[in-house]
């Protein structure tokens, strides 16, 4: 919450989307896919620490980052203007049964180590319908726009040290929101009546960043649903991840530079994202197989965002797993609430919830539908 250098500046236009065939991704509706050309522009930070040569360098870097005197370790050397031309993979999903609520559009953003399938995984063993947020939202009558963030999934790969910074991710999300508000890439629903940002973890930070970065965006977004999210990041869990250079771990990441990192194995995954006994080992193993490499630039810059949003007047819900280690040091009770209302002093309502007994990856733990239900009740009450 301290570095305004990460607030996005001017964002260029997004155009030239190419549709691919519609595909049923849920028993409750249909999704149509797009590849969208983007040209974001923002101000970030210039990465100045020596690039990693091997995993020994990563261990040294993480040790310095996690040490008691880490405040004096600053791997940047001032502001950096960022711009580029990329493609973003996305899908618009609309409910099979139209009730009028489909005009409220939920724009989802996933966290680090995932892609858009965090919100809309294929419903096949061991992933059951209960783990699919998009399917649940469609069943409640709402539409969902889901995408792979820059550097993940089917979206463009970029330089891991600088290009994937949080400011660029906010810039892209802002422009996607502008396009959707204008009725582009929304399929049969047309221009939405309400646009709600839904985030998980890093996706929550950039969702909050959209309304914090510019007063003009306060009329663009009608509401925020933030999960796996906190303003009180006091104890980073870098060492629990046991981070390594991504290209040394998987053949399909061979084209990534050494600025892309990943956690070590399924046990590191579980340490940060899950809590026993509220998850299936088979589902945890599935998420490990699906994990995405993480750009060091986004990993380092999101904790530095200034997320104070005095101009936002819409409703805000913050929902965390009660035992989230990744964001609340293992206990979210009373961890977020003291800060939330202060960050949104003019919001219509700020609701903070802890989902019982689960960790950071709420969507892939038992009773995920309980979390979805709380989220949709909030939308029904304040945003339908």
TrEMBL record:
Residues 110-364 form the AB hydrolase-1 domain. It comes from the Eukaryota. The keyword Signal applies. The keyword Signal applies. Residues 1-19 form the signal peptide. Keywords: Signal. This is AB hydrolase-1 domain-containing protein. It comes from Viridothelium virens.
């Amino acid at each position: 919450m301290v570095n305004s250098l990460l607030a996005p500046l001017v964002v260029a236009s997004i155009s030239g989307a190419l549709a691919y065939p519609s595909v049923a991704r849920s028993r409750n509706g249909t999704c149509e896919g797009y590849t969208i050309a983007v040209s974001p522009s923002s101000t970030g930070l210039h990465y100045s620490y020596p690039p990693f040569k091997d995993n020994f360098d990563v261990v040294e870097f993480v040790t310095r980052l996690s040490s008691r005197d880490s405040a004096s370790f600053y791997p940047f050397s001032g502001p950096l203007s960022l711009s580029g031309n990329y493609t973003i993979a996305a899908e618009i999903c609309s409910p099979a049964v139209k009730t009028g609520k489909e005009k409220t559009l939920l724009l989802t953003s996933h966290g680090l180590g995932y892609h858009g399938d965090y919100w809309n995984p294929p419903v096949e063993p061991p992933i059951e319908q209960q783990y699919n947020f998009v399917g649940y939202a469609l069943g409640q009558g709402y539409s969902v726009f889901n995408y792979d963030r820059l550097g993940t999934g089917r979206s463009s790969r970029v330089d891991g040290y600088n290009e994937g910074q949080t400011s660029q991710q906010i810039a892209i999300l802002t422009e996607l929101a502008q396009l959707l508000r204008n009725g582009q890439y929304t399929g049969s629903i047309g221009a939405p009546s309400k646009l709600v940002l839904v985030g998980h973890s890093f996706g929550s930070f950039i969702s909050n960043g959209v309304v914090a970065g510019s007063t003009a965006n306060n009329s663009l977004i009608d509401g925020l649903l933030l999960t796996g999210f906190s303003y009180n990041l006091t104890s980073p869990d870098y060492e629990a991840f046991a981070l390594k250079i991504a290209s040394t771990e998987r053949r399909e990441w061979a084209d990534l530079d050494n600025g892309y990192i990943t956690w070590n194995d399924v046990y590191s995954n579980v340490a940060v994202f899950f809590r026993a006994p509220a998850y299936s080992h088979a589902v945890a193993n599935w998420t490990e197989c699906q994990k995405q490499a993480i750009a060091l630039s986004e990993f380092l810059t999101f904790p530095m965002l200034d997320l104070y949003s005095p101009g936002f007047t819409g409703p805000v819900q913050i929902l965390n797993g009660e035992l989230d280690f990744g964001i609340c040091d293992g206990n979210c009770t009373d961890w977020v609430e003291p800060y939330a209302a202060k960050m949104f002093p003019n919001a219509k309502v700020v609701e903070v919830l802890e989902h019982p007994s689960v960790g950071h990856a709420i969507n892939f733990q038992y009773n995920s539908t309980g979390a979805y239900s709380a989220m949709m009740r909030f939308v029904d009450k304040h945003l339908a």
